[in-house]
Design a protein that fits this description.
221 residues, alpha/beta, binds D-xylitol-5-phosphate, binds zinc ion
Length: 221
């Protein structure tokens, strides 16, 4: 399936989202961070902004919901035009039902884990998902330092995916940069979210290609 780069729009200029999306036209996805000030101590954007962004770009949207009660709210992001919707397992009441609902609507279903949430209790859920997100910072803010303590979980998640012969994607998000992407790729990640690293670069599309090349060189896949 190959390495994929998903720049986080959280690090872009919210007053110019359509323009910012064009600046990262080499991206495989646009990562859109939805925060509700309950699941995380920050508030960003919601369904109307996702709907507007989906109309303004051809790049598929990868919506990362850092919100309470995703069982209730996540389907609206598919209706708004997201191609992939990731909910957090810590917030979901019925993750299997929710993943099936998202897939039935035609989206990819992703499930995210905070740094302190282990993957092992969710091994049996993996076939219900298109993507598993291992957070490499505490969710809530861009520009935080990469947490190396999450790397063993990336590796263990990759082993579980391979053990079951699944075609699902393993995504990492938080502090991903040229300094940290290789250790994620070496551990088995293949979808890389990068906010500050991409949008603070002079040439965001060039940085996407540098990140892609580093990940491809280090990938264990
Ligand atoms: C953090 C968000 C991330 C964030 C990443 O809670 O989920 O997607 O934007 O930003 P960087 O790459 O700057 O750590
Ligand atoms: Zn995110």
């Amino acid at each position: 399936m190959g390495i994929q780069i998903s720049p986080s729009m959280l690090a872009s200029d919210f007053a110019n989202l359509a323009f910012e999306a064009q600046r990262v036209s080499n991206a495989d996805w646009l990562h859109v961070d939805v925060m509700d000030n309950h699941f995380v101590p920050n508030l960003t954007l919601g369904v109307p902004v996702v709907e507007a962004l989906a109309k303004a770009t051809d790049t598929p949207l990868d919506c990362h919901l850092m919100i309470e009660d995703p069982d209730r709210w996540a389907p609206a992001y598919v209706e708004a035009g997201a191609s992939s919707v990731t909910f957090h397992v810590e917030a979901a009441t019925a993750p299997v039902r929710l993943a099936r609902e998202l897939r039935a609507m035609g989206a990819k279903a992703g499930m995210g884990l905070r740094p302190a949430t282990p993957i092992e209790p969710y091994e049996d859920l993996l076939p219900e998902l298109d993507m598993l997100l291992v957070m490499t910072v505490e969710p809530g803010f861009g520009g935080q330092a990469f947490l190396d303590l999450c790397v063993p979980k990336i590796r263990r998640t990759r082993q579980l995916i391979d053990k079951h012969g699944l075609e699902m994607w393993l995504q990492v998000d938080g502090g991903v940069s040229l300094e940290t992407i290789e250790r994620c790729a070496e551990a088995g990640a293949e979808v890389f979210v990068a906010g500050s690293a991409v949008f603070r670069a002079d040439d965001p599309n060039g940085m996407i290609e540098k990140l892609r090349a580093s990940a491809e060189a280090a990938s264990c896949l």
